[in-house]
Amino acid sequence: MAEKIQEIMPFEFRQCISIEKATGKKARNIRELKEMISTVSDECIFHHTYQYFLKGHILEYTSDFAHWAGESLEESSLSERLSNIDPYDFREISDLRNEIVRVIDEYLAKFPEPRDVMPGDEFHFNETVTLIFPLGIRARNLAEFLTAMRYINTASIYYHFYEARIRLGGGIDDFSRWIEDVFGKKKLAARIRAIDPFMHTLDAIKNHIIEEIEEEVRKDMEVIDRCLTSM
Questions:
Q1: Alpha-carbon span 91 to 12, nearest angstrom
Q2: 164-182, pLDDT tens digit by residue?
Q3: Comparing C-alpha atoms, which of 27, 111, 122, 108 is closest to residue 72?
């Protein structure tokens, strides 16, 4: 039994912080936005797409580009098309960049004379340096995992739920993978993976995961109680 416990791989909670850096580049309209997207660094594209979800995002958008098109330019049609791009479908930044440019090109073909935003509402291109570090919190079973989940911050949720999708692919996050690999709880893992990352805030995702783990821990306790009662 002791050997079995030692085999369990603990879940180590990490989080990431981003240090934002201005590039000095900006766009006043859709055409300038497309030209800049074509030439800015991969780090800049990463910041305005993947890391959009780290910023307390508006749920109807999936990137800063879609957000700006909808809120500043009030181009709802373009904003919707940009929001239909799931950045986690792309393993390479270049492919994501090309898809964004393609969508804007299609829009410009229909509306070739885009208007400028009001002064002060320009799109400012930024980059970030991301630092990842352990929180010093480990979980060896679901009860410990549940306790930790109640106290970790949203930056840790972002790292394990969103950024993990870039590392692991296939819509898989760190939480569900650990639960499936270590405990074989495929149904619980599937329920966590079914939480839509675009329909919830980081706090809401955290709460959904806690609810799922609470329910699983309760079921496990009921099984143990029945076993003890029957002895």
A1: 25
A2: 988 888 889 999 999 999 9
A3: 122
